[in-house]
Every structure is written in C-alpha cells, then in structure tokens.
Write a structure and sequence with these properties.
The chain is α+β, with helices and mostly antiparallel strands. The protein folds into three domains: 2-80, Uridine Diphospho-n-acetylenolpyruvylglucosamine Reductase, domain 2 (2-Layer Sandwich); 85-194, Uridine Diphospho-n-acetylenolpyruvylglucosamine Reductase, domain 3 (2-Layer Sandwich); 214-313, Uridine Diphospho-n-acetylenolpyruvylglucosamine Reductase, domain 1 (Alpha-Beta Complex). 27% of the residues lie in helices and 28% in strands. It is built from nine helices and 21 strands. The strands form seven sheets. It has a five-stranded antiparallel beta sheet. It has a four-stranded mixed beta sheet with strand order 1-2-5-3, with helices on one face. Strand 19 and strand 20 form a beta hairpin. It starts with a helix and ends with a strand. The structure holds flavin-adenine dinucleotide.
C-alpha cells in the first residue's frame, strides 16, 4: 500500500501520525497513515488505493470539531487540502480544503456580504458544508448554490436542495463515504466598511468566548429546535432563553450543574455550560466520560436526549 501511495502525485503522507496535532482539542492517538491529497486526482487515486487494500478510512478537515480516540485510528485518515478561491461577480467557487476564515476575509475584501457572520468559526470549508456551520442567526447553507463531491465512484455536483441542509445537518453527514471537493456560493454586493465592522465586532466577542489557544470544539452539543421538544420539556423552558426558534443546550446543562465541572484536565467553562475544553493533557476517555455524565444528567432531569455536534473519530 505505502509503495502505491508514493507513486501518487500531489499526495503527502505521514505514517503513524499523532492526530492530537491535527485537532483543536489536542487529543487523540495516532493514525496508521495521514494522507493529504492536494488535488482531485490525488484524492480519487488515494481513495481507490485505500479501498482496494481494505483499510478503514475517515475524512477530516481542520480538526476543529473532532474527538479522536486515545487509541487513534487504525487506518487511513484523509484530508483534502486543495484551497483555491475563485470569484466571478457575486459568485465564489471555493475548494473544500480552504480555511473558512480565509474565505470570509476574501469575501469581505471583495465587498461581498453573506459570510461575515462566520468570522472566527474555525475549520475548513468542507467541514463547514458537512455540518452546515453558522453563527449569529445564519449558516452557510443560505449561500450554497452547488456542492461538488466524490461519492467513491464518481465526482458529482448537486444543488442546494439536494444537500438537505438543516440546522447543523446535511446529506454529507449521513453519507460519510462522500468527500466534499468544492462548493459554489452566491453572495451579495455590500459596503466593505460595513462588512469589516460586523466582522470585527464578532471577532472581538468570539475571541473572548473562545480564546484562540483554547483546546475545544466550540459547542459540544447541538442546540434544540423548539418545535422538536415535547410539551413537557417546553413547559420547563422560560421564554427568555429561546432564540430564533431554538433552545440553547446550555440552558439544560446549566440546570444540571454543568458549569465549572472538571474531570482531570477536562473542564466545563464557568461562563458557558456547553463549552468543554482541555486544559492540557486531557484524554478522549475523560472527555467522553464528561459528555456521558452531562447527557445522563439532562436525560434524568428533563427526559431530553442531547445530541453531540462534535464528531467522533476512532
Ligand atoms: C472555538 C470554536 C468555535 C466554534 N464555533 C462554531 C460556530 O459558531 N458555529 C459552528 O457551526 N461551528 C463552530 N465550531 C465547530 C467547527 O468549527 C465547525 O464544525 C467546522 O465547520 C468544522 O470544520 P473542520 O474543517 O474543522 O472539520 P473537522 O472537525 O475536521 O471535521 C468535522 C466533520 O466534517 C467532516 N468533513 C470535514 N471535511 C470534509 C470533507 N471535505 N468531505 C466530507 N466530510 C468532511 C469530517 O468527517 C467530520 O465528521 C467551533 C469550533 C471551535 C473550536
């Protein structure tokens, strides 16, 4: 297998790569091999090589929403690292390996509105499409025209509706074998200074909430859509905590005493019950234990099952 990989142009690989170095939590054991495919041909060839050798494989992006097992991943971890951004009027076509913040910054420089509220969401564009990332009442799906991906057999392109975007959901989450290659987004002309002001305001707030060196994944649990909650649960939620039809998971977590909880170096923030971080040296085992305890407490008190936004590897 490794000899075959050597022959693939534009592919970089790292044997026995510690995945802690590729995740924002800085947690996780080693992958048998980490593969960075720099273009579509490299990606397709490497994916075929992996399948033929029957290695287990998983795709990751910037690693900002991942909990990797302490024993790592017993196969190939694949990243698609192509990162071109091409503007054409109000349309932008961007590769999945582009850092989301680079896309946000370039769109603002082009005087285009639509992504500025995503300022400081970490990760890459592919990860953002996969989880329909968003903040401040907007998510990326509002701007998506098409998504191009490799389904294991061929490269396909689908439109916004076919992506089945929902709150932190997309068709890609349910088809973990598909690899997002690029997307085309439709933005709107706007005043550059106004966009910069919005982005700066958001940046300031977010850097206080999530200091750039904090080892975390943002919110651990998805918020809850009010419409999905049972009458019994709704009755326990004060109207003042409902925002844009959603109830923050943090509300339920606060009620079960999550704030400031500790499990070794794994902490729940004192100012945000849905923010778990690693103070350094924490393990996936401790992190999963903390998540499990919190879910159990919320289930017991409210009869409500919280769902992780964070994704597990290994
Ligand atoms: C401090 C902080 C703040 C955050 N704030 C927010 C926020 O406000 N809003 C929000 O939505 N999220 C937020 N997040 C979560 C995270 O930034 C997003 O989920 C982000 O979009 C993940 O992108 P990534 O490239 O890091 O993906 P990864 O974490 O590497 O992967 C996440 C998932 O995406 C899949 N994936 C990644 N790339 C591809 C691809 N090319 N093809 C197919 N599947 C792929 C992986 O298989 C994995 O299941 C925050 C995280 C942190 C650390």
């Amino acid at each position: 297998m490794l000899f075959r990989l050597l022959a693939i142009p534009n592919l970089h690989f790292y044997v026995n790569a510690s995945l802690a170095g590729y995740t924002r939590f800085e947690i996780g054991g080693a992958a048998k091999v980490l593969l960075d495919a720099g273009d579509e041909n490299a990606l397709i060839e490497v994916r075929r090589a992996i399948e033929e050798s029957h290695w287990p494989h998983v795709v990751i992006g910037g690693g900002s929403n991942l909990i990797v097992s302490d024993s790592g991943f017993p196969g190939a971890v694949l990243r698609y690292t192509a990162n071109r951004i091409d503007f054409d009027g109000t349309c932008v076509r961007v590769d999945a390996g582009t850092i989301l913040q680079d896309l946000v910054d370039r769109s603002i420089e082009h005087g285009l509105r639509g992504l500025e509220t995503m300022t400081r969401i970490p990760g890459w564009v592919g990860g953002a499409i996969y989880g329909n990332a968003g903040a401040y009442g907007h998510s990326i799906h509002e701007r998506v025209e098409t998504v191009r991906f490799f389904d294991g057999e061929t490269v396909r392109e689908i439109g916004n509706e076919a992506c089945e975007f929902r709150y932190r959901e997309s068709i890609f989450k349910r088809n973990k074998n598909w690899i997002i290659l690029s997307t085309t987004l439709r933005l709107e002309p706007a005043d550059i200074q106004q966009l910069r002001d919005t982005a700066e305001r958001i940046l300031k707030i977010r850097d206080e909430k999530y200091p750039p060196t904090m080892r975390c994944a943002g919110s651990i649990f998805k918020n809850l859509l009010l419409a999905d909650l049972s009458e019994a649960v709704r009755a326990q939620v004060p109207a003042s905590v409902i925002r844009e039809g959603k109830v923050p998971s943090a509300y339920f977590l606060e009620q079960v005493g999550a704030k400031n909880m500790e499990m070794g170096p794994i902490h729940v923030a004192g100012y945000h019950a849905n923010l778990i971080y690693n103070r350094g040296g924490g393990t996936a085992c401790q992190l999963r234990e903390m998540i499990c305890v919190l879910k159990t407490r919320v289930l017991e008190k409210f009869g409500l099952e919280l769902e992780e936004e964070v994704q597990y590897v290994g």
